[in-house]
Amino acid sequence: MADLRADARRNRDRLVEAAAALFAERGPDAPLDEVARRAGVGVGTLYRRFPDRDALVRAVAVTSLRRVVGNARAAAGAADGWSGLTGFVRASVGDLRLAAGLSMTFARTWAGLRLDAEHEELRDELVALLQQLVDRAHGEGAMRPEVSAGDLAVLLALVLRPLPGAPPALVGGAAERHIAIVLEGMRAHPGEPLPGDPLLLDDLR
Amino acid sequence: MADLRADARRNRDRLVEAAAALFAERGPDAPLDEVARRAGVGVGTLYRRFPDRDALVRAVAVTSLRRVVGNARAAAGAADGWSGLTGFVRASVGDLRLAAGLSMTFARTWAGLRLDAEHEELRDELVALLQQLVDRAHGEGAMRPEVSAGDLAVLLALVLRPLPGAPPALVGGAAERHIAIVLEGMRAHPGEPLPGDPLLLDDLR
DNA sequence: CTCAATCGGAGGATTTTCCTCCACTTACTG
DNA sequence: CAGTAAGTGGAGGAAAATCCTCCGATTGAG
């Protein structure tokens, strides 16, 4: 996977990126022909590199996760929990957008598919780091104690998922803004208590 | 449309409801056979009542809009703008979930399809009422002035849209909670300024 | 009880999606 | 700057999903 010819590698990357966008928008069942078209690449190239849909889905998830986990590691070293958390989220907006397809991979997990070793490892590390950041922010009194790491995860997935058929530039560019609003809503301050129960990360498996 | 036999009316309603859920989840191109199946009704029944996909999409949008506009009218008479706004949102969560299909109808508008008279009328009234509620909340200093009615509309559509293949009970039931977090984030209080520009409702047409 | 309205869903037509195959192109290597 | 192994695109047939008609069975209304 590392020793590809330059053009091959380029096309592979394009495919993963296009697939991430399309999966995020339309779910993991989006037609592969369209992935190829969006990537500006022939279908033959797609099927040569990814023998079946699952291989592509896995590649998308792992690629995104790798970067997101990188961001989370960096955030763990931040001065305080809250700024670590917001820093992580902001840094990851782009990757999470790709990684919204990640939530689909969770869906696949629910659907009973096996994850390969690296995938599972990354997922677990991300979950641990996220929980740690949230705990820290809670401890500092910077974050509403009723808001859980699971709430955060779900809200990120929801808000970063593009609306189908939307005006891409317009709504897409607004993601950072909307995420900022959501983060504000998670901040500690004297509001009414939230309805319902916190989502635990474990509930999301 | 009013003088249907009892069973016919019941089935029609079931169809609209099932279609709303499916359109919200998978976009307005979701297979009609599955709409029928989810509604517990034969395909024949579906095609008899809605000659083509567009008729069904229109019915979903108008039905949802009617109820949402009703809520908005009620909210316009609230004691203050902010409670009117939150009241409206909370009351509409169920309908907006259905009406997430509404955002698809916006998408169809973008795609260049004509809306019938009632649909357009409802849309315009909702936009006006929403803008009015937000203006009032702004005037009272209860809502962050940088958050626009368009921001609100888009965030609602995003957060209420179900994740595909998700654990339906779990994530579905959390909608109210997540909406509450978003509303908190829109409240006036001394936070950092939001990045980006406010979304105007007119930008969304 | 009658019957016109309605229902369900089998199944053929149509469209979408998959995915192989190969003649042509391109990056690397000596 | 060839030679060549690796890579490429996309036509097109197979397979699957989706559409949507049709009709014998069922059911609500008077």
From TrEMBL, chains A, B:
Residues in HTH tetR-type domain copies: 9-68
Keyword DNA-binding: yes
Keywords per UniProt: DNA-binding, Transcription, Transcription regulation
Domain of life: Bacteria
InterPro entries documented for this protein: Homeodomain-like_sf, HTH-type_TetR-like_transc_reg, HTH_TetR, Tet_transcr_reg_TetR-rel_C_sf, TetR_SbtR-like_C
Portion annotated as DNA-binding: 31-50
PROSITE patterns in UniProt: HTH_TETR_2
The protein's name: Helix-turn-helix transcriptional regulator
